[in-house]
Amino acid sequence: MAKIDVIMPQMGESIAEGTLSKWMKKVGDTVKRDEPIFEISTDKVDAEIPAPQAGVLVEILVQEGQTVPIQTVVARLETDASAAAAPAPAAAPAPAAPTPVLAAVTAPLPSRPAAPPAAVAAPAAPLPPASLPPSPAAPPPPSTGSETAEERLRRKSTPLVRKIAAEHNLDISAIAGSGHAGRVTKSDVLSYLESPAAVAAPLPTGPAAQPTRAAGARGATTLIEVPSPVVEPWDGDRVEPWSKIRKLTADHMIMSRRVSAHVNSLFEIDFTRVAQVRAARKKEYAERGVNLTFLAFIVKAVADTLRKHPVVNAAVMGDATVYRRDINIGIAVALDWGLIVPVIKRADELSLLGVARAINDLGERARTKKLTPDEVQRGTFTITNPGGFGSFAGTPIINQPQVAILGIGAIEKRPHVVTLPDGTDTLAIRTKGMLTMAYDHRIVDGAVADQFLADLKSALQAFPDSAA
Length: 468
Prior knowledge:
The protein has about 475 residues and is of the alpha+beta class. Helices cover about 25% and strands about 25% of the residues.
């Protein structure tokens, strides 16, 4: 018999640690090769990790809820020597390096020029998104020969952490880290910004800082502190700690409200034409294994319309605007354990069938925890669909670092005034729904946002047969 180490895999190039969120097997259980044995959470995605070999789980070295660096041995399997001699596959494949040149549902993803975040995903949900994609940030200060290995590890951080620190003019080395050997994590930076120590710290000068600054004497500025209410559980209450994805979503939403000047526009859309095309093509798509939904039509129309309005597909970088070449649309997916935002990359290059297939695939793999970090990064525009639960309309929060997010209300038959050829009006039954777009007024003016929505409305209300 031989023992095989099970390690914490690297789920993406910028990921240096992971949280073991759940053991799916217990000591003494027999496992098959590639059978999921534990779940992990990172700042990008939740995933199930398969066993590298068949055998018996004999040791669990990392408990649920613990965060450890990649390559840490989390468990050991006992297997026969002949099986152990065979090369074991990687516990989880790391995504391929991005190529310079899109995404879908609400989070930034790699592929083509650098684009930004995910789950939230948070989408997003955010997603998440959701998911939170890394963005370029100032590199950490160069190490000196006198630095200890522990000091260098503490200074090492993900691009996302460095970006947040740079936006708030923070010195990462001055922040107490909770990661391995004092490594500073995203949660450490956000907690520091909430602490009294941040009030005295130097403030950033870019527009991103404005929502968190207030004028003081002689033009001085101080960070606005908003104390959280003190909450105590009462008899009979149940207290459930937040999961990693829930905490990341909460942090991301609070940050987005502070950073962006949120404005909302609402347009009512007549989906009758879309409903007709969908009814005519739904059986054909089903024969190909694809469920044709209203969302697919909206994603397709959004992707085509974004090309005409590049500022809606942009990001703010300090006091400059980054116009994204790729159109990567994140879709917020609501899960039992939180929100995640997988991304359809280069959505404008896909047919309606391609968009529908991508939505089906990403949604299913999000629910089964099969997404890779690459699939929840580099979104440039996000769509969230609360209308699926019956909501008439909503005002979603922008998925940073994007500058706009589209919310879809319930699509249903409603009475509508129709003007007849003779000029008289009558009531008719039409398939209607509300679209709401939240946008960052720092770079997206109201006229631009409304023109984008007007063009989107026209595209949906006159959706051509040829596009299906």
